[in-house]
Amino acid sequence: MNETINMQLNHRTIREFDNRAVEDEVLEELFEVFNRAPSSTGLQQCSIIRVTDQKIKDEIMKVSTQKYLAKCPELLIFIVDIYRNSRIAIENGFKDNSYRDMDRFFQGFTDALVGAQNMVNAIESLGLGAVYFGSILNDYDRICEILKLPELTFPVVGLGFGYPMQNPQIKPKMPVNLKIFENKYKVFDNYMDSIKGYDDEMTNYYDTRDEGRRSDCFSKQVVKKFEDIVIKRKDVLKSIAKQGFNVE
Ligand SMILES: Cc1cc2nc3c(=O)[nH]c(=O)nc-3n(C[C@H](O)[C@H](O)[C@H](O)COP(=O)(O)O)c2cc1C
Hints:
single chain; alpha+beta; 11 helices; 42% helix; 13% strand
């Protein structure tokens, strides 16, 4: 096994960091890694907002409700960014408004995630740790407001990182045969039977997200998370429309 794969197989989300700042040279390198990531049609339709102002971090934390967000030495918010290219097109005499299409939105969303995970791999390769924050999307409109996002931009995910202060267990994952299929989708006869072993394994995992408590089995987590609805997240299409995209 090579070093890269070994590192990826040892991936763990880190939620507690040392106070040590991430050096400028390291940040520059990580931003270059983000910039080198593949992008849909080569249009580079995503951007990052690096949050260095503690007051803004605290405001974002209120949306996320996860206190450890405000303590991350580095916090990046990845965004869909069609605004930049729309301006380039308009300044170039473009008259249509196809840049408002949902297809573009999804291209930007995908670009952001591809760039983010490329960066996470680089972060981990340097011995640093990272945590994604999907929880910043608990209130899309508020995040747009806090970060002063113009039209044709939209938050995708947050990423906190720094030097780790914890060494969590590797989180058990579902066996690959449940996720990787050949040529066509495979439907299993009984899903509870298929994940029995994984369910058992999961109860021996101590979740740092849940203050180190022993995890529920996976099947219970699925139900719990489906029950745990954040009302504002249900209105995501309204928020996307508010940012100027054609959702219909
Ligand atoms: C898109 C995305 C959003 C996530 N959002 C959060 C989050 O808001 N808060 C958090 O503590 N972890 C978050 N995570 C981390 C997951 O909880 C974590 O990856 C998962 O439980 C598996 O654990 P592992 O990364 O240690 O293998 C997120 C991960 C992804 C990919």
